[in-house]
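A protein record in our archive is deliberately plain, so that people and models can read it alike. The record that follows is passed on verbatim for readers who wish to inspect the format.
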Amino acid sequence: MAKGLRTAPGERIGETLLERECRETGISVFMPSFWTVVRHQRTNKLIEKRFPLFLGYAFVKIEEEHFALAREAKSISYFLRGGGRYGLASFSDSKMLELYLADLEAKELHATMRRNGEADVRKERREILGRQLGSIFPKGRRKKVPIRMMAAAAMNSLTPRARERCASILEELEKLDKADAESCKIPTNPLTSAA
């Protein structure tokens, strides 16, 4: 199977060549699949992978006027009849609906896993930056004062190199706070409908 697209917008992330060609032709396509989200061992970046349930196969709904366009598509080589009455691998409409609903649930679960994973990465990064910021200052500081306030207040008394490092850490912490605020604005359960 071909690689999925990495730089596609929104819903088309992980789209296969077959799905893209059908979408561009105007053919409605459905490829049931599931996603995994894995964190890279060194970089802590989240890696998303999509695995189709039926490798190399997709369900298409072709209107009669689009059938000639579908036959000319490069990524479509054969057609299997549908409707649940033909051949070895036929699916009834109720089974197709079950697959579609399961795919919607898997997409929502994947989106939740991605949001949670991104939040975990930001939290770990924030803890690392806090420790680095604490290591710049002398030991024995008062624990009641937040480290960011202390860093902002003591910035002028630091050496130029430590001041530069402290400023970059504070800037990165601000970016993490903005990313957290933006992620809170995104609705956690977008309403989807199978109708």
About this structure: Residues 87 and 94 are 17 Å apart (CA to CA). Helices lie at 17-25, 67-72, 93-136, 147-153, 160-185.
